[in-house]
Every structure is written in C-alpha cells, then in structure tokens.
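Q: I'm building a small set of examples for a reading group on sequence design. Run inverse folding on the following structure and report the sequence directly after it, with nothing in between.
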C-alpha cells in the first residue's frame, strides 16, 4: 500500500509557531480526505515533530507539505530533512498559499506544487503513477490544471490555473476527521471546519488605480459577474488579503456535509470547533444569487434562514447541546451586521468572541485599501453585536500602504471609541505583502521599534487589552489544562472556554487533560493571565 505523510507547516514561519498555537486548520485535513478517498494510507505530523524523527522519511512514499506564504523557512527545513533521511528520491508535493509565490518556491527541492484549490487537482494527480507511490514524469501530468512542476533542466512548468470549483463539486470532497487525532492536543485545540470558501469582497483598493485613471465603479456597482475582472487588472478584495484572488467568490458547503464533518470530529474526541469562513454571515448568500457569483460584500443581506438552519442542526448534536463540545465563530464583516443577524447569533453564541476587521480608523484610507466597510460601519456593527451579548475582537493592521500621521491619529481615535464601548480585544498585525494581492510589491511594514506611527497604534491597542485583562481579575471561568508552559516549567497552560487569553496555572500537572473551573488572580501580559483552580469539572475525552 502507498503511504503518504502530510507535514503541517502552517504558521511555523522559519520553524516555530508563535501565535494561535491552539488552532488546527482545515487545509491539511482536506488534503488527507482526498488521499483517503483514493485509498492512500495517510498520516499527519506537525513540523516540529517531523524534524525530530529521522525514521519518518524512510516509512513513507510521498511527502505533502501544507504551508502559508510566511512559512517558507519551515518548508525549506522540512524538505532538506526529508531528502537527507529518505532512502530514495521520493515525491515532494507542496500545497497551500505558499505556492502562489512562485518566485519564492522555485529554489526549493520539490517535485510538484498544487496551485489554488487542491481537491480536484490532487484527485486527478493521484490517478497517475503518483497514486502508485512513484514520481510521475512531466508528460504524464502536464495536462492537469493547477500544477507547478519542477523539471530537471527545464525549471518550472505551470499548467495553468484551475477554475474555481462550483459548490456542488466542493461538496463531493470530505475533509478527514480521523486524522485530527495525529495532532498533539487535538482534544483541546480549536479545530476549524470550513463552512464556506472564498470571499464576497470584490471591491478593489483605489490606491492601486493608475495615475490619472478614473474608477470605473464596476466592482462597487456593476453586475456581479462583471466584478470578477478589473479593467486595470487590480486583484479583488482588500489590498493585503489574497483570499478572493486565490479562492474566488464565496461558496457555501451544504449543511449535510458540515454536519457530517462536525459529527466525525466530535466522535474523534474534539471539544472545540470553529466555523471557519471569511465571514460567517456570507453563509448561504451565494444561494440567493446563483447562478451569478457572490461578489458583493453588502447585498444581498445575510441569509437568515440558511444560518438559522445551520446553527439549529449543529446545536442538535448531543455533545454540543450537552455543553461537552464548544462551537465558535471566526470572522464577521461589519458590512453584513444588522439587527436580525446579531439577534440570531445571540441565540446560539451569546458570550462568544467574534472577530471583525477594521484595519484602519480612517474613512478615506479604508476605501483606498479596498475595505468592504468603513470604520464608522465597524463601530456601529460592534455596538449592535455588544447589544446582543457577543464579544467583538477588532483587528487593525499597522504599516499598511498609505499609513501616515493622519490615518494613525484617526485609528487611535477609533480604538479609543471601541474601548469606551467595551470591545473585548484589539488585535494588531504588522503589514506583510502576500503573493497575488494588490499590495504584494509594497515593502513590509517596519517593526514598531523603527516606526513611531505603527508603535502608537500597537501601544494604544495594548492599553485596551491590558485594561480588559485587569477586568478579568476575580472572574471565574472554565478552561482545559493542556501541559507545561515552555518558558517556566512551574506553570501549566490552560485554554479558556470558549476562548480568551491563555491562563497559567501553578503546579497543575495532575489536572492535565481535565476541564476545570478557574479563578483569574493576576494579569501577566496582554496575552497571558494567571489563575488558580477552584475545582475539577470533568476529564476531557481523549480517545
């Protein structure tokens, strides 16, 4: 039997995951599902565990690597380790957003890269000699769309982009649920389930208009199908985001498929599931405009009936209704938040964090970078969500193209307004140019140590976050104890339920794998709090 190994390099950068350490993405499980469909024996390992085990390269016939654009260093180390310890030249397949940076990957020692949505491309690829564990000749696979092939003496061959898969085709592929158990701490991590793919924001960043060119307004007001392409060849969506260009307009998975996947994960012992989407309120909106593509981030409004049915079915799962499994949301765009949507969300997710992008506090800057909602609309959305008992986390990016003293002053003003409203958290990121985005050729934002404007944004956000952490003192909440804290072994790490800052517990080894009631006793940083265990709730199922 052919044996395949997936190495998850997502978020590892040059070799270590520094944030969102309790997240298990949907991509590697999706790849595993295609392999299982083709009767390939498949196992998964994280990057940090792979490079500790010299025996793995000899045990498998195919190496598949899942990575983002920022994980180039970890991918390079993975391939070098594989080549050094394998017993023959075995096939290396790359996948994920990393592949869109063709110039970045051309010097890596890979054989095949899957470009774009991977399900159908990988499915076709496994019908060749790769499915027998052999490295296919270029002539055997060059007709398969969506591949980048590295050919000795010829360099890189790109077979052309595959068209975005219709939702009916996407629904034929089922992400693996059993392979989730290959992840350490899968029983306490946030496991992502993709409820829709792509993004409906097909606005273009006006900052990219050629000199003296006039905006044609097609992407703002034109027919949905005409928004797919720009006469100035500006990629769709926010200038810093690659999702609409790489994965197309939003397409919703069927409720039946989503339920099947969630039930499989629950049976495997997963206790925290995140409904993954560029905007959960996009779910089912594509059904309202079919056969046209969903390329408008505002109209039609949320498909309340579809959302309600989805949530009802998920919360009817016995383990979910009993509170043994927590369901979380990921992103919400302010452009779709209204009273009806917020009220529906509160019925199922009251007290749960929801993430909203603002990125800049400047109305003008927001339009220039392609945002689907203005800062004023973000503030109004936050007010509405807070009114219905949700806990908004708001994102900002520092170092963006167009950032200046005025935009920073306006951003700080909005952060302070959000603080007064009682926003749960302000999350800041440093601008990083990504392949296939409008801003891919802009320089990366400077570190806050070298840019006082960016530093001002981060410092203002940290003030809010420390303030909110201090408000947690004396609060009692539930958490799962997951192991020792690597920076100080006298502490154990606990993940709060449903979500929140990492909790450090002193000398709590005996509670490993348990859900416990914790009281927050101190604030260590804007990311960490200290707690004490009040009592044990139950042992988390580890099957």
């Amino acid at each position: 039997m052919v044996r395949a190994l997936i190495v998850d390099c997502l978020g590892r950068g040059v070799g270590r995951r520094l944030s969102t350490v309790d997240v298990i993405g949907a991509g590697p499980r999706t790849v595993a599902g295609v392999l299982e469909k083709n009767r390939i024996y498949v196992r998964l390992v994280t990057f940090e565990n792979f490079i500790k085990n010299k025996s793995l390269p000899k045990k498998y016939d195919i190496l598949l690597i899942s990575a983002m654009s920022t994980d180039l260093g970890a991918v390079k180390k993975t391939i070098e380790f594989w080549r050094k310890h394998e017993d023959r030249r075995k096939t290396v397949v790359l996948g994920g957003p990393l592949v869109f940076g063709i110039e970045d990957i051309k010097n890596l020692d890979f054989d095949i890269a899957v470009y774009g949505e991977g399900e159908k491309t990988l499915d076709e690829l496994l019908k060749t000699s790769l499915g027998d564990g052999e490295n296919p000749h270029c002539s055997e696979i060059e007709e398969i769309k969506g591949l980048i092939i590295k050919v000795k003496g010829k360099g890189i061959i790109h077979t052309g982009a595959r068209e975005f898969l219709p939702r009916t085709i996407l629904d034929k592929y089922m992400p693996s649920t059993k392979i989730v158990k290959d992840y350490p701490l899968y029983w306490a991590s946030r496991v992502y389930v993709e409820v829709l793919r792509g993004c409906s924001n097909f606005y273009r960043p006006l900052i990219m208009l050629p000199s003296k060119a006039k905006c044609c307004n097609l992407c703002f007001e034109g027919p949905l199908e005409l928004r797919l392409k720009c006469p100035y060849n500006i990629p769709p969506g926010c200038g810093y985001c690659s999702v609409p260009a790489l994965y197309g307009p939003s397409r919703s998975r069927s409720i039946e498929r989503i339920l099947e996947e969630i039930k499989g994960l629950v049976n495997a012992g997963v206790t925290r599931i995140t409904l993954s989407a560029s905007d959960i309120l996009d779910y089912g909106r594509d059904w309202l405009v079919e056969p046209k593509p969903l390329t408008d981030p505002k109209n039609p409004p949320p498909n309340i009936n579809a959302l309600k049915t989805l949530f009802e079915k998920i919360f009817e799962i016995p383990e979910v209704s009993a509170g043994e499994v927590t369901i979380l949301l990921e992103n919400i765009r302010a452009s779709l938040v209204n009273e009806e949507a917020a009220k529906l969300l509160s019925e199922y997710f009251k007290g749960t964090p929801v993430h909203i992008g603002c990125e800049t506090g400047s109305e003008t800057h927001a339009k220039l970078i392609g945002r689907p909602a203005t800062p004023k609309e973000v503030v109004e959305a936050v007010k509405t969500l807070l009114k219905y008992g949700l806990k908004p986390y708001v994102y900002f990016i520092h170092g963006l193209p167009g950032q200046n003293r005025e935009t920073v002053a306006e951003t700080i003003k909005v952060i302070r307004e959000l603080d007064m409203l009682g926003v749960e958290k302000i999350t800041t990121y440093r601008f990083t140019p990504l392949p296939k985005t409008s801003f891919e050729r802009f320089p990366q934002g400077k570190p806050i140590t070298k840019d006082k404007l960016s530093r001002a944004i981060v410092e203002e956000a940290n003030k809010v976050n420390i303030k909110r952490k201090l408000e947690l003192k004396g609060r009692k909440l539930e958490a799962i104890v997951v192991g020792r804290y690597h920076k100080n072994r006298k502490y154990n790490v606990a993940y709060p339920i449903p979500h929140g800052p990492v909790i450090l517990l002193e000398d709590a080894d005996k509670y490993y794998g348990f859900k416990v009631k914790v009281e927050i006793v101190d604030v260590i940083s804007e990311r960490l709090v200290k707690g004490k265990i009040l009592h044990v709730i139950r042992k988390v199922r580890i099957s």
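The chain is about 30% helix and 20% strand.
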